[in-house]
Specification:
homodimer, 348 residues, alpha/beta, six-stranded parallel beta sheet, 41% helix, elongated, DNA-binding, DNA-binding transcription factor activity (chains A, B), Lambda_DNA-bd_dom_sf (chains A, B), transcription regulation (chains A, B), transcription cis-regulatory region binding (chains A, B), transcription (chains A, B)
DNA sequence: TTGAAAGCGCTAACAT
DNA sequence: ATGTTAGCGCTTTCAA
């Protein structure tokens, strides 16, 4: 039987309201009394029941974190950073996984609504309208997608995709495939838009393949389509698909980057572990998690401060991208100085 | 302002207790009345407040999941499976990360205690005594370690380590290093015990290196020690360390498996993505997550059913293990039929 | 500075 | 089958 505020009151010879104040409004209670109370509480192992407190204050000190797929390596660093940051501010975090299902997203937000002070919606696949409606039930911060009227944290993937395309074009590629991501993904649309524009600007051709589930399997599944398209380079929606594609190409005896260059997006942990190591666009996922928590918690104070935080991305050149057929002249294959420490140890 | 049970009562012209029953004890209420109530609730967007309900029932329908490191690829599949399984039974999951710090573990359990019906403690680094004490505050299920008197789910890593050692010895290795894991890890002790025994049985020598943090970096950091030890094979505490070691050996020009064989443990997603693909001991992490949730939830009914569930492991032979110096005769390098589908596509 | 009393949203006896 | 009442653990007026 856990100790309640009443047990502490009895033990320290004061009224429950004094105990309450000793914990939640220390300045309203005599220092000596407070010391007594705290000592008694300590002795009894008393800890305030946050749920009971929430019932009256309306603040649960919990937040919800809803992601598309916990096992997708993109998310764990974000979850970890968000949880750690939230805990530092005395918030606990419910984590839930939608399995990329928009229907589950809504149900999850509604189910958590009463138990949290707000929800971080990461890479949602719902419509803007649905999201706006949900935000009337519980404060929402959207990650990886801007929603008009709501606070959001996004990564500048368009910038990343442009850098990736310029990198490929610079290497002499003129026929490039874009391995598209999931339907309903804002990130996917951004990438596509930026890649299309970059291709047009550079006079290159862009073949769009998709939409696809953002998994290794669907990356592999598109290998045939990539080969049929006759391109010399591929930009993938994420690292997972890039890796799946590389594997499938490998099994077909197609060499990366010798015959086909492949560039990923996200710079997840696996990009440094594959061979060849993956050239990819680094997205600051941990920073995004922390920023989203901050927005959610400060959002309580100044309401309707509908901010949009955009985090920068950068191109990390490793070994999966190499010279293309239209290469004219020039320097070594690196078009930019290596950004990542490990990349400089590439062995070719 | 979210609708409360009173709003629904008013709207449907019945007393609040009837509304309550309509939701939590349907058989006690007239079907017609219930339909009315449910319709009114639907209209108002009413959802029972679980925290308020918990205050009186004592059951929160929440569980806590505490892991050593969310970003360690071992955990996401476990978290995902546990969360999904729990949600299927109408439970929400708090996830927290201790960063491998035993002090944080205790604080976390205590902080969550009042808000959950139980906590899944994954790979805890605390002492048994501490864990037992904590279990008086809140029901605990321990994963990856048996604790006397408490329900637990463990993997038979001893069996896995034995298989791995036999595999290496069978390949002709007689000097083998064990890359130890973190201090306080039961899994680490099990592996060490089993590996030591297997080495003795086979007349091989086992050099134990460690303890180490279970990270890629510390795997890399032990490369020198491995070379100095003059062994021809290494069994690592986990895939992460195995991969780190392979990388570091590679940078030194040492070929795996030609010069040194490396075997990991866990069969995380990365084991299939590294080159060479990692020979490793597969641990059923998703199953462990589900089993732990089941134990926690059923534990409520039949108390003190201190069960220990042990899940089997198996050796997955891929490309990072090869013939050793003492190889006598025999068949191709595969000592066992490949267990994993991908392994059969290994290209040598 | 502290106590008394009301009540957050809900369930659980106990009546009827 | 439904209404009444009390109260879960806590905070917060309002008095004193």
């Amino acid at each position: 039987m856990p100790a309640t505020i009443r047990d502490v009151a009895k033990a320290s010879g004061v009224h429950v309201s004094t105990v309450s104040r000793a914990f939640s409004a220390p300045q309203l209670v005599n220092a000596e009394t407070r010391a007594h109370v705290l000592a008694a509480a300590e002795l009894l192992g008393y800890r305030p029941n946050r749920a009971a407190r929430a019932l009256i204050t309306g603040r649960t000190h919990n937040i919800g974190l809803i992601v598309a797929d916990i096992a997708n390596p993109f998310f764990p660093p974000l979850i970890k950073a968000a949880e750690s940051h939230a805990r530092g501010r005395d918030y606990h975090v419910f984590v839930a996984d939608t399995n990329e299902d928009p229907g589950v997203e809504e149900e999850l937000v509604l189910a958590l609504a009463k138990q949290v002070d707000g929800v971080l919606l990461c890479s949602p696949r719902m419509s803007n309208t649905q999201i706006e409606q949900l935000s009337r039930e519980v404060p929402l911060v959207v990650v990886n997608r801007p929603v008009p009227g709501l606070p959001a944290v996004v990564m500048d993937v368009a910038q990343g995709a442009r850098l990736a395309m310029e990198h490929l074009v610079g290497l002499g590629h003129r026929e490039i495939a874009l391995l598209g991501g999931p339907r309903g993904s804002w990130t996917n649309r951004e990438i596509r838009r930026a890649a299309t524009l970059a291709a047009r600007t550079a006079g290159a051709e862009l073949v769009v393949l998709g939409p696809n589930a953002p998994t290794e399997e669907s990356g592999s599944a598109q290998a045939e389509a990539v080969l049929r398209a006759g391109v010399s380079a591929v930009l993938a929606y994420n690292d997972l698909m890039a890796v799946g594609l590389i594997d499938a190409l490998d099994h077909r005896g197609v060499k990366v980057p010798d015959q086909i260059s492949v560039v990923g997006i996200d710079d997840t942990a696996l990009s440094r572990r594959t061979r060849p190591m993956l050239t990819t666009v680094a997205t600051p996922t941990a920073a995004a998690g922390r920023a989203a928590v901050d927005m959610l918690l400060q959002h309580g104070d100044d309401r309707r401060t509908t901010a949009l935080v955009t985090l920068q991305t950068e191109l990390v050149i490793r070994d999966s991208s190499g010279p293309g057929p239209h290469r004219t002249a020039g320097p070594g294959r690196r078009q930019q100085p290596p950004i990542d420490g490990v990349a400089s140890e590439s062995r070719e």
